[in-house]
Amino acid sequence: MDFHHIACNYNHMGIVATLKLPEDSPNVVAWQRHLPDGGFLALLPLTQGFSSMVWSMNAKEAKRVASLSEDAFVDAINDALWKVQPRSGFVDQATQTFDNLIRFFNLPSTSMTQCPPKVLGCDIKSRAMFPLGIGHATNYVSKGVALVGDAAHRIHPLVGQGVNLGFGDVICLNKVLAEAVYAGSTLGNLQYLKNYETERQRFNVPMILVVHGLFQLYSTQFTPVVILRSLGLQATNALTPLKKFLMSQAAGLRPQQA
């Protein structure tokens, strides 16, 4: 089998853990906060009172945080979620001016802020750490073999697309194999497997490049860039059709499925 792989290491680590939240509050919202060091902390609801966390940070700091006691680890998470970070006055002025413009046109505003949940504890056995980067196989298939999911591509968890890309691979491969069987061919027929490779690479490669670009965009605190990305988020939230389109793409849906 002749598979080639292109990769780029970010020198960042992702810390994952299962967190305990208050049981008397609905746990139906996913949270993500971008941090001044270029990392981010995201919470994904699991069941009532529990969420899954991924926390991205530079490798040196990740090793320190991963070694904290449970109480200190939980305190660090709450600090990252709740601490008021210093902001540039230029950024605040630009976003406020743009928000006023949005309100003038009666579009959805982002001025209302929701508060993240308070983390009460952590399943210590669930805590783990892994390196972050991007990677992509230049070819997904060989005779009788097809790569799917992380075997074919690796992506930063910034927008939570890793598992969606993997699911999309499986759905597409299943469709292609069904077509091969229906046509009386074998499952390992390279012609049909190439159809899978072409379709998935057309979707996966742009997504990987977009996420790589977002990682670079949020890794800088250069004021003009911060202003542009902040205004971009406000504009996306205000333009409902654009927001729905981006959400459907993130979910791996085609326009007719959205």
TrEMBL record:
Superkingdom to which the source organism belongs: Eukaryota
UniProt cofactor(s): FAD
Gene Ontology terms: cellular component: mitochondrion
Keywords: FAD, Flavoprotein, Monooxygenase, Oxidoreductase
Residues in FAD-binding domain copies: 123-203
GO MF assignments: FAD binding; monooxygenase activity; oxidoreductase activity, acting on paired donors, with incorporation or reduction of molecular oxygen
One example of a Gene Ontology biological process annotation: ubiquinone biosynthetic process
Pfam families linked: FAD_binding_3 (PF01494)
Entry similarity comment: Belongs to the UbiH/COQ6 family.
Protein name: FAD-binding domain-containing protein
Organism of provenance: Zophobas morio
Organismal lineage: Eukaryota, Metazoa, Ecdysozoa, Arthropoda, Hexapoda
